[in-house]
Amino acid sequence: MHELGIVVNVIDEVEKVAEDNKVDKVLRLTMEIGEVSAIVPDLFSDCFEWAKKRTKHLTDCELELIVLEAVTYCQDCKGTYRTTKYGKTCPHCGSGNTYLLTGNEVTIKGISVAEPTSDNA
Amino acid sequence: MQVKTILLNKNVLEGNDREADILRGELRERGVLLVNVMSSPGAGKTTTLVNLINRLKGELRIGVMEADIDSDVDAVTVARRTGVKSVQLHTGGMCHLDAGMTRQGLEELGIEDLDLVFLENVGNLVCPAEYDTGAHLDMMILSVPEGDDKPLKYPLVFQKCSLVLINKIDAIDYFDFDLQAVRGYIADRNPKAVVLAVSAKTGENMDSVADYFKTKRGEMLCQNKTTK
Ligand SMILES: Nc1nc2c(ncn2[C@@H]2O[C@H](COP(=O)(O)OP(=O)(O)O)[C@@H](O)[C@H]2O)c(=O)[nH]1
Ligand SMILES: [Mg+2]
Ligand SMILES: [Zn+2]
């Protein structure tokens, strides 16, 4: 279970941000997950739903996952292509001299939080 | 109630990377070389470590941390067959070790009197490759029965390793395994990797592996001197 460990890291991080900003409730958490980041979005969501019940600030938090397309760059023909379709080998020129441009990210983009509209707000 | 958005743009693996760098630095200062050992289940991590430690223990003070999931016995095996101290790490079913867990393991092991520590990571080629444990060196073991196309299927772990052992070379006649091809695949992904074909069972070429670690520990001490 790779996803659970990452969920726990993410939740720790968000809880810290919530504390630092004196936020009571985090309503929404937006994350970007690369297509080839080795994270399965459905598993990640399931783990999140399970883990959030045990938090201080995220019990009502909705998780938004944005899956980023993986793109590979070819150093020989300078072209780019969909990684999930062709892997390491460039479909334009057949070269294996390629590297991943995007698709490996696991990023916390941001959170939406509830602010009490009190007198001192 | 108002809703406010806080932008974070935070890479999740970053926290672990930072912790790993700190751990690596601390160990270096204390002269302890930490080696992360990765492979598929059954490729021969435990057998290799036992063989290797028996070659090195006269010269270096060694400790072992075992984290392979299905092997509560590995720490006991290593301790019994080498006499060096070892601990079993409890990963709680996790598929990899991160720097925090490695630090805890080192505390449990006690490194005051050690020169070299091996970490037997969880048997899996995907997740351990993504997490920096804080080790100075990553060693990957690929065994002959697994096939010569592993570097194509799991490029990341090969990119990360400074040393790749092709283990169970004693069995090469029984498998369709092209050693030349595998060397090429590894070089494509990681030209700097040292590749040694060995048998942890018969001991074939294991002295080269032992020499490799002696040299690496020596280099670390030298660097420490010149930077002080
Ligand atoms: N023929 C052969 N078998 C080996 C060799 N190294 C390990 N084995 C066997 O492979 C099996 C798994 O080894 P082990 O060290 O427990 O693998 P681990 O799961 O990676 O720690 C055991 O039955 C070992 O005896 C080798 O060099 N040659
Ligand atoms: Mg083992
Ligand atoms: Zn190309």
What does this structure look like?
The complex is a heterodimer of chains A (about 120) and B (about 230). Chain A is built from 3 helices and 6 strands; from the N terminus they run αβαβββαββ. Chain A is of the alpha+beta class. Chain A has a domain at about 5-70 and about 105-115: hypothetical protein PF0899 fold (2-Layer Sandwich), CATH 3.30.2320.80. In chain A, strands 2-1-6 form a 3-stranded mixed sheet, with helices on one face. In chain A, strands 4-3-5 form a 3-stranded antiparallel sheet. Chain A is elongated, with a radius of gyration of 19 Å. The relative contact order of chain A is 0.24. The mean pLDDT of chain A is about 90. Chain B is α/β, with parallel strands linked by helices and about 230 residues long. Chain B has one domain: P-loop containing nucleotide triphosphate hydrolases (Rossmann fold, 3-Layer(aba) Sandwich). Helix content of chain B is about 40%, strand content about 20%. Chain B contains 9 helices and 8 strands. Chain B has helices at about 15-30, 45-55, 75-80, 100-110, 125-130, 150-155, 155-160, 180-190, 205-225, and strands at about 1-10, 35-40, 60-65, 85-90, 115-120, 135-145, 165, 195. A 7-stranded parallel sheet of chain B has the order 4-3-5-2-6-7-8, with helices on both faces. The longest helix of chain B is centred in the last third of the chain and has 22 residues, at about 205-225. Chain B starts with a strand and ends with a helix. The mean pLDDT of chain B is about 90. The interface of A and B includes residues 6 and 13 of A. Strand 6 of chain A pairs antiparallel with strand 1 of chain B. Zinc ion (ZN) binds near residues 90 and 95 of chain A.
CATH class of chain B: Alpha Beta
Largest interface: A-B, 29 and 26 residues
Net shape of chain B? globular
Q: What's the CATH architecture name of chain B?
A: 3-Layer(aba) Sandwich
Termini distance of chain B?
57 Å
CATH architecture of the domain at 3-68 and 103-113 in chain A: 2-Layer Sandwich
Report the helical percentage of chain B. 40-55%
